[in-house]
Amino acid sequence: MNNAHWPTLIGLAVGIILGLTAAFGGLTAFLLVLVLGAAGFVVGRVVETGEVNLSSLSTRRR
């Protein structure tokens, strides 16, 4: 599988997990999963790159 598809698949998985959490767990569970998912994302970026640089996530056109 090409590495270009990983962000799409990860986004799909996160969307499904958040949707199921909202449907069956309510707002509190949804927010908890959202916050913990964001924290896991930041930790993963630090492990992968060795630094906390989230500026590459925003797309700015010059």
From TrEMBL:
Q: Origin, by domain of life?
A: Bacteria
Protein's name in the database: DUF2273 domain-containing protein
Q: What is the lineage of its organism?
A: Bacteria, Bacillati, Actinomycetota, Actinomycetes, Streptosporangiales
Q: Which residues cross the membrane?
A: 12-36
Entry-linked InterPro entries = DUF2273
Q: Which UniProt keywords apply?
A: Membrane, Transmembrane, Transmembrane helix
